[in-house]
């Protein structure tokens, strides 16, 4: 297995590109996202399909966002395919091996299954969230590492970013004045978006592979997030944390 390296910047679907801010409803709740070309991008690396978005609130919520039961992969199996054009496929295989070694999730190469994830070439690192029941994607640019791939698989399995927990304000301070214009909504909690997020017990996990670092999306070199004591922290893209693993085991018993 190739070494898994740390990451100096967060995952982005389209690095160095900004879209227009749009509003729509996701799971019956109003959200703000960026429209870059014809792609709806949420929280910088989460792809939303037209099926995810509605122009008005006419969706019944079951109270658990993308982590709800219908968005989990049946039988803990993720069917997948790898685009032959994707370079460095070892990062995908290593990321899959890491997930299988630490969680009950199993990856099976797709044959005729309708619901599956395709690993393909992208501008940056991005993915859909949860099980859609049809073809969905994990996009990997040339700079996306094995660690980034582990992170994106986390979204595919059903995880949101760690800092969007509803209780995160007890652990971190968001410095809105330092956030790059257009990315402010990436730092909202589920409550601020009107979504009910799935929060595993124990509070915010500073070791989570799904967490941004203190300086991610800073417009002035100052931290966008700090701990409550004012200290900063780095993101890690080495491995799933103990709490990441417990969360998945809870979601997929």
TrEMBL record:
Keyword Hydrolase annotated: yes
Cofactor info, note text: Binds 1 zinc ion per subunit.
Keyword annotations: Hydrolase, Metal-binding, Metalloprotease, Protease, Zinc
Entries under Gene3D superfamilies matching the protein: Collagenase (Catalytic Domain)
GO molecular function, one term: zinc ion binding
Annotated positions binding Zn(2+): 151, 155, 161
Requisite cofactors: Zn(2+)
Peptidase M12A domain residues: 66-253
GO BP terms: proteolysis
PANTHER family: DISCOIDIN, CUB, EGF, LAMININ , AND ZINC METALLOPROTEASE DOMAIN CONTAINING, METALLOENDOPEPTIDASE
Record's protein name: Peptidase M12
């Amino acid at each position: 297995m190739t070494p898994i390296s740390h990451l100096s910047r967060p995952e982005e679907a389209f690095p160095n590109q900004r879209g227009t801010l749009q509003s729509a409803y996701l799971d019956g709740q109003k959200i703000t996202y960026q429209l870059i070309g014809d792609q709806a991008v949420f929280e910088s690396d989460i792809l939303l399909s037209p099926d995810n978005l509605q122009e008005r609130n006419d969706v019944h919520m079951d109270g658990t966002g993308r982590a709800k039961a219908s968005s989990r992969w049946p039988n803990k199996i993720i069917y997948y395919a790898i685009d032959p054009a994707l370079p460095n496929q070892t990062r995908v295989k290593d990321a899959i091996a890491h997930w299988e070694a630490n969680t009950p999730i199993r990856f099976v190469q797709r044959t005729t299954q309708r619901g599956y994830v395709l690993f393909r070439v992208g501008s940056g690192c991005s993915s859909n969230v949860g099980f859609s029941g049809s073809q969905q994607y994990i996009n990997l640019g040339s700079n996306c590492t094995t660690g980034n791939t582990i992170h994106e698989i986390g979204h595919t399995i059903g995880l949101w970013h760690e800092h969007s927990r509803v209780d995160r304000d007890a652990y971190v301070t968001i410095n809105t004045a330092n956030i790059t214009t257009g990315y402010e909504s990436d730092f909202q909690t589920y409550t601020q978006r009107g979504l009910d997020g799935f929060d595993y017990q124990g509070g915010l996990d500073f070791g989570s592979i799904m967490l941004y670092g203190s300086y991610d999306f800073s417009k002035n070199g100052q931290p966008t997030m700090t701990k409550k004591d004012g200290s900063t922290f780095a993101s890690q893209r080495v491995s799933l944390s103990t709490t990441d693993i417990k969360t998945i085991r809870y979601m997929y018993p």
